[in-house]
Amino acid sequence: MSIGRVLFRKFSNPSLQLVPPGSAARPGRPFALVALLLVSAGCSELQARHHAREGNDLFRAGDYAGAVREYETAQQLYPSGLHVVELNKGLACRQLMVPGAKGAEQDKSVDCALGSFTRMKELRPEDPRGDQLYVQTLFDADRFDTLIAMYEAQLKQDPNNLQAINSLINVHSRADHWAEALKWSMKRADLESKDAEAQYTVGVMIYNRLFQKGGADKGTYDPRPDPNASKKDPPKTPPPFTLGDIMGAERIRVSELGIQYMTRAIELRPNYREAMGFMSLLYRQKSLSYLDKPTDWELCINTAEEWRGKATQAAPAAQPNTEPAPAVTPT
């Protein structure tokens, strides 16, 4: 039975009907007003749900802009809000986003999605999808400043909040803020001082940076004198570093920092084959700081070979089993 029919029956008693001003039956007037308001609210919600279903049909048909318009109509008809409308409108707005795009249309779609997921969190705070989709939208829209401010605010309340630290690492990595990503990775490793993988991660991160910043094309160069070279041959010239590369004393410092964390990983897990392999690679990256110092270069290379041998002898680690997360669609 519809809301309107129930209310009609309830207020069909003549003693509760609206009456002209001055009548002795005036006390029944508030009840009739309440009835009208309830009927109106019930009809508005039904109409809102109708437009929401129309929006779902358009979403499934791939007409995301049309779906957004229907969801907006539902919002206008029922301002109190339906969390499922906010969820689906946010998903439709996300479909209108273009990866890597900039401009007014992109900002409009992003703001639309963020606004819907924010409202959804208000209406149904116990539903984790609201917060998850809000954060994912910020990531997908490259709104790194907002994410950084959000997680740093969490760390002000709890400096050892590992979830916030992990999130900052992800944000700074996506934004190519390498120094900040390294800082928070080291913070995590220091907090999880008994976790070998946390230490290993810092070492791998440093190796990757050294490789990218001048370490990719110099591994075959041997600075030691060639015993078969004649006196007429020109002196050896090491391959040059370029602007932006990590070189000299800074390369030594960064390499030793990676070696330090990789050493911690192996101390915690003596048979850590992957850590041994990267220890060898870190020493090779360090050796590139000594392309004009053959003795120091050779010491690094010999140490790298020692670690390579240890890695070869160590037992391989089991590979984790991962499954993809399910996709989110309108409900």
Layout: helices, strands, pairs:
Elements: H1 3-10, H2 29-60, H3 64-77, H4 83-95, H5 104-123, H6 128-140, H7 144-157, H8 162-174, H9 178-191, H10 196-212, H11 248-268, H12 273-287, H13 294-313
Helix pairs in contact: 1-2, 2-3, 2-4, 3-4, 4-5, 5-6, 7-8, 8-9, 9-10, 10-11, 10-12, 11-12, 12-13
Q: What labels describe this entry?
A:
Serine Threonine Protein Phosphatase 5, Tetratricopeptide repeat, 331 residues, mainly alpha, disordered N terminus, elongated, disordered C terminus, 13 helices
Protein model, in words:
- The chain is mainly alpha-helical.
- It folds into three domains: 1-142, Alpha Horseshoe (Serine Threonine Protein Phosphatase 5, Tetratricopeptide repeat), CATH 1.25.40.10; 143-183, no CATH class; 192-219 and 242-315.
- Helices cover 65% and strands 0% of the residues.
- It has 13 helices and no strands.
- Helix 2 (29-60) packs antiparallel against helix 3 (64-77).
- The radius of gyration is 33 Å and the shape is elongated.
- The two termini are 25 Å apart.
- The model is unreliable at 1-27, 32-41 and 324-329 (pLDDT under 50).
**Tally the helices: what do you get?**
13
Return the structural class: mainly alpha
Helix content: 55-70%
The separation of the N and C termini measures 25 Å
User: Can you tell me the CATH architecture of the largest domain?
Assistant: Alpha Horseshoe
Order of helices and strands: HHHHHHHHHHHHH
The number of distinct β-strands equals 0
Unreliable stretches covering 5 or more consecutive residues: 1-27, 32-41, 324-329
Mean pLDDT rating: 86
CATH topology term of the largest domain:
Serine Threonine Protein Phosphatase 5, Tetratricopeptide repeat
Major sheet: size, sense and barrel closure? none
CATH level 1 class label of the largest domain: Mainly Alpha
Radius of gyration, whole Å:
33 Å
> Strand fraction band?
under 5%
